[in-house]
């Protein structure tokens, strides 16, 4: 397993395909047993540097506004920072009572925010990256599937607010790949053509070039097919 080494500690970095590390935690919505409590659902587990900071505040307002949209895609949101429960509660109250961002105001953050003063969870997930900050988590985004497997990870530095369209797009693209056994090309969004798995043998490669019903093959290794937006969304989103 790869390591990030600092003078004080060696932190294992969870990787794509690994089981999500287990933990029990106190959150703003009560105690959680992770990932067990989320079996059968996708989870976006994300960290932020600190409560009462502006970029984080803009992200929380945005995520809270989008929570229902993520829930419709069978996905729960779980946040974390290296702060205590009372700081979390005070910050979320302030967000609801005072802060407006991008026209969004009176926003109630209903998803759990983990208190992690001990940094136990942040360290398990490689969210503390000492050359960026020794005391604050970076902006990590872990996509964990219904079987508790880490499927994608995005890390951002402290100063860079996340792109929530991309986070949602990545979630839907992975669900589409799972459901239809396809891959999704650059900048894919529902309604765009999908990539058919590359030919794994000379016979299939030959067939790809001769029997192309329903496929658009530019070469034996590059075949796409149409996939209706409604077909994708009906298969993925809860009614
Ligand atoms: C922020 O969320 O505004 C922030 C947090 C840590 C460092 C820089 C910005």
- Helical region count? 6
Overall tally of structural domains: 2
Radius of gyration: 20 Å
Poorly predicted parts: none
Q: Assembly state here?
A: single chain
Please give a structural write-up:
The chain is α+β, with helices and mostly antiparallel strands. The protein folds into two domains: 23-162, Glutaredoxin, CATH 3.40.30.10; 181-236, 2-Layer Sandwich (Antioxidant, Horf6, Chain A, domain 2). Helices cover 30% and strands 24% of the residues. It is built from six helices and 13 strands. It has helices spanning 54-72, 85-98, 120-124, 164-180, 202-210, 229-236, and strands at residues 3-5, 10-12, 23-27, 30-34, 42-47, 75-81, 113-115, 139-144, 150-156, 182-183, 194-196, 216-219, 222-225. The strands form four sheets. A five-stranded mixed beta sheet has the order 7-6-5-8-9, covered by helices on one side. Strands 10-11-13-12 form a four-stranded antiparallel beta sheet. A hairpin with a 2-residue loop joins strand 3 and strand 4 (30-34). The chain binds benzoic acid. Residues 49-50, 53-56, 136, 158-159 line the site of benzoic acid. Residues 49-50, 53-56, 136, 158-159 line the site of benzoic acid (BEZ).
